Amino acid sequence: MKERITLGVVALARTTFDYKAAKELYSNILKDLKGLENVDLAAIEDQIIEVEDAKKAARELAAAQIDGLVVISSTFHLGHLVLELDKVLHKPILLWGLPELPYNGGKIRLNSVCGVNLNSSNLYKSGIKNYHVCVGSEIDSDWVDAIRISAAFNKTNLGVLGYRAKGFFNLGVYDLNVYSDLGILLNHYELSQVWEYKVDEEEIEQRKKQVLETFDVKELNEFQINKVAELTAKLGRFMKDNSLTALAVRCWPEFAGEFGISPCAAMSILQSEHNILSCEGDIEGALSMIAHRAVGGETPYLFDFSQVDFEENTALLWHCGVAPCNLWDGVCTRSLSTYFAGGKGVTADFVLKNGDFSVVRLDSDRTTYRVFLASGSVIPMKKELRGTYMKARFTKPVDEMLRIVTENGIAHHASVVYGDFLKPFRIFAKIKGWQVIE
Question: What pLDDT is recorded for position 352?
Fold first, then answer.
């Protein structure tokens, strides 16, 4: 399900053009916009013609706490109007131009595209570059989805359990950089806060039943099965009680040594229930998964760009056993094993399902953010390895993908979902002024 947002909508006009026909077009557009998935409209019903109209509309939209502003040039109009709106709202803007109506007596009736050109020039030369342009009879749904990403971050309550994994310096962040760029304050918790969290025995028993029904556990002993059930219950309850959007977990080395198992299997189960958990304390990995979910990607999976086969032109998108268990291919045996951490791993083992996929990584380069994007298709394979994985063929040659990742220093984790979700991220990056790497 896509992130719910509120869009402000205005139509700018000038009476020297066919503003009456434009008003009818605007009424029909509002009817269409009401059908957008998980979008609430804060629409100014009357056309904005004079500067005072714009000032009044800005106050009304500010009270509605909109996430983005749709500015329709229903006809050509005064250049003041969009600036008066932005002066108050400071939200990402869609400059929407309408197709020209048939000429009437040789006179251009709307001149809408010229209005878009005027607005874009005024905004750009004012240093305001968070706008996007579309021309047509329908709204740009990719821009709407880009606004969902921003809205999701505005609502995010992100927890960090422990710290990043030992030696993974590239996953570290500067907390106040995350705040300044995304408005997110990180909440830090100690590992022991989860280990010692109180949950009902009945809930642990329900989780144990779930573990036994979901996985082949013949490699596990009773202690390990009980620990998986206990941790699943504790992690799930901890996230719920603290209203966490996502949790970045330092999953090794302390978990296996001090709690008794690694958290991979528990995280696999919880992620299949639409919880977002990132392994190895990867905060930006969690942010990438939050963004994927905001645009409609289901159960994001954080993977390592693990192996490449140049002859076959494929890569293995693998991790040690934490992928959401609902992404199982339905063919292989979905099992738990203890190959990791000296027999205390308790990781999920299965091949992921087939389909087309999209990859995103929100990745910091010191104090600057950029977005890494990729796409491809899953190549069916047999279960030959421990962990959770898919064999992938990217839309670009795998040697080119490896070059892009390594030359740009992209972190070794990225979020993958099934489906095509690249365009909203390109627009989101433009709104934020971030570099796109793909």
Answer: 98
Of the candidates 248, 297, 295, 299, the one whose C-alpha atom is nearest the C-alpha of residue 273 is 299
> Do 232 and 266 meet the contact criterion of CB atoms below 8 Å apart?
yes
Distance CA 25, CA 34 (A): 15
| CATH number of 394's domain | 3.40.275.10
What pTM was computed for the model? 0.96
Provide the 8-state DSSP code for 408: T
| In a domain? residue 98 | yes
Predicted local distance difference test score (pLDDT) of residue 340: 73
Residue pair 348/327 in contact by the 8 Å Cβ criterion: no
- What pLDDT shows up at residue 406? 97
- If one counts the domains in the chain, the total is 2
Contact between 239 and 159 (Cβ < 8 Å):
yes
* Domain-terminating residue out of 139, 171, 199: 139
Cα separation of 215 and 212, whole Å?
6
Position 30 confidence tier, pLDDT thresholds 50, 70, 90: very high
246 neighbors 329 (Cβ within 8 angstroms) = no
- What letter would DSSP give residue 365? E
Contact 93, 117 (CB under 8 A): no
Measured between alpha carbons, how far is 390 from 252 in angstroms, rounded to an integer? 23
Report yes or no on 368 lying in a domain: yes
Cα separation of 321 and 303, whole Å? Answer: 10
Q: Report the alpha-carbon distance of residue 305 to residue 295 in Å, rounded.
A: 23
Which pLDDT band holds residue 86 (cuts at 50, 70, 90)? very high
- Residue 186 CA to chain centroid, in angstroms? 17
Query: Lowest mean pLDDT: which of 218-232, 339-353, 376-390?
Result: 339-353
Is 176 found in the same domain as 88?
no
Mean of the pLDDT values across residues 412-420? 97
Structural domain that includes position 88 = 5-139
